[in-house]
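Retro notes
What went well: the complex prediction finally ran end to end.
Inputs used:
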Amino acid sequence: MSTKDLPFSQGEFDRRIAKTRAAMAEAGLDCIFVTDPSNQAWLTAYDGWSFYVHQGVILGLDGPPVWWGRYMDMIGGRRTCWMSDDHILGYGDHYVQSIERHPMQDLAAHLRDRGFAKARIGVEMENYYYSAKAHAVLSDELPDATLVDATALVNWQRLIKSDEEIAFIRKAARISEKVIQTAIDRAEVGLRKNDLVADIYHAGITGVDDIWGDYPAIAPLTPSGIDATAAHLTWNGDPMRPNEATFFELSGVYRRYHAPLCRTVYLGTPPDDMRRAEEAQIEGIDAGLNAARAGNRTCDIARAFMDVLAKHGIKREGRMGYPIGLSYPPDWGERTASIRLEDTTVLEPGMVFHFMPALWMDSWGLETTETILITEDGPAQALADMPRKLFVKD
Amino acid sequence: MSTKDLPFSQGEFDRRIAKTRAAMAEAGLDCIFVTDPSNQAWLTAYDGWSFYVHQGVILGLDGPPVWWGRYMDMIGGRRTCWMSDDHILGYGDHYVQSIERHPMQDLAAHLRDRGFAKARIGVEMENYYYSAKAHAVLSDELPDATLVDATALVNWQRLIKSDEEIAFIRKAARISEKVIQTAIDRAEVGLRKNDLVADIYHAGITGVDDIWGDYPAIAPLTPSGIDATAAHLTWNGDPMRPNEATFFELSGVYRRYHAPLCRTVYLGTPPDDMRRAEEAQIEGIDAGLNAARAGNRTCDIARAFMDVLAKHGIKREGRMGYPIGLSYPPDWGERTASIRLEDTTVLEPGMVFHFMPALWMDSWGLETTETILITEDGPAQALADMPRKLFVKD
């Protein structure tokens, strides 16, 4: 196609940039260099699997943002970003994985050219795509600038979703329903796990009607039995066995927007302790959704769930959710607020979380989760329509 | 399953560690902290989609390595690593994405406990999973230690593959043949690209016979027409159009080992300039394979290809290949040697490269690539069996 197919209106991008600039002003920053691929896409619409080389967005206090990356990805930037071509910059391939040169030398030259040699520049110190080396080189190249840690500055602006974004997440939820239903329908004793995962990918990427499926930021997690006590194991070619629970941690994705959804399938007759945990978990999720109201805090959701668990005599530690939306590998969380006892983020309408009160016990794991939208009033809305229970197949 | 299913023999892990320690000794290091997930898996067999939180391997000059990560992933470490449980450490969930605490504080305590408080410790400064912030915190926590840049120290040890590894890559190549054949067979005018990608994923993950498919470190790249002039665009829901070339940059994966393979499909009658480029590219690949002999250098492969291109009057810049094998997202390259004019790595038997002399032109892209094994004598061996040509479907 020869014209751009932008995911959002210009008004939406303008709103995002204005919001980000307000946060920059508050932090006393002249400029930010954004390396998080999700933040890059959120600001500019850049979309490509090129984050494995150095790239990012330069955003000053006026004018359009500038996307900067490898020369061959500049071409992709021209295809996908909303800005005009003169705001999309490429560096030569001799910088790529060179031991003599570093792409940050090229970036520093652009920053100097744009008057940021002595500026206060925000960088995302805690990001997969801003390496320790990148920071060291950029610091050396800009001796008169002040590099300030602006980790999550843009991420926090993403916390409340616009109507356009919520529409995308709702579409992703349609795909999530389909992939979870596929997993439940297909699971049976003797089926190789990789064959099941193949069907999960197929269901997710074909999508639902004109809602075409994008790649998830996390590979399908589908561990069974004792492997399900560990949270992040991926599949192998072993057949599914009787008398084991398998949890499915999956997400449909529409144009990089996620709506994670987890359910657990038991092949056989579940043990009593798993049934009791199921009961507690589902009652706890109801309590959590009811506490997930505008004006309450993230910790209130966690407390509501934990209180129910305590009543049932079940111990659980750790985080039980995080905001989601636009994402690139390796994580679909937004890495700002957390649903946990110590987090006091105030809930506002338009926030979307993966509420994830999974139970990983000594010999099995039970995941039943929801992508939830904080509404104007009343409890949070689960965006996927899927029965909330342990699915049992005899 | 209750017993460990290790991918390799203990002798293989011992060999890897001895080789790594020799490089550490040469660099004057007492210890390395390894964050690259591929390096972690290569040393310990750790396997899980958990690299989005801080984790790594501590390797001193004696004793088994220690895997360190989030508490819930410690469970996964016990399921997958070859070491005994006392060499697998977990930190509490309150360190995860906290703004008050950082996991590197926990790591530093372990390093001090193990006598590395004043040691020379190698860290991977240029790695996706060693952030600028991680380095700053670790430096602060270990004021008497010397943190030395050991980027790619382990990666370089991976360059020559063992027979066990080559057997895995050959299995991956069987899957690569299947996924490329699927793409070629399915491509047709009107087919939505996401539906094609769904079939590609399905083919790759079902695998071939008992060679079950693992997830690729890079999502399928399948751009068409003008989008194929940009190297790293992913799919959308648009139908395939007549008179466009689509390149397929794909890899089968067996237990994290890759064998990338690319082919291009044209729907219609290709223009003359594409046909001329095809001829040059194929002749150039032959020349490259012939130059890819033990004792020659990486630049000799690049030069052989470029000479053929020059003869045909085609200009091309940039890298045309890299070593491959074990990999995790976001990249399947090993990030050491490159097939390019300025790289002088001497080729040795057992090295495996993705030889990738793609042609990205002004209005189309043409990718025909091979995973190649450097042999004892003679030209390199292409590990996948797939005709080397532009596939034309009228």
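What we learned: Chain B touches chain A through 85 residues (CB under 8 Å).
What to try next: split runs per interface for comparison.
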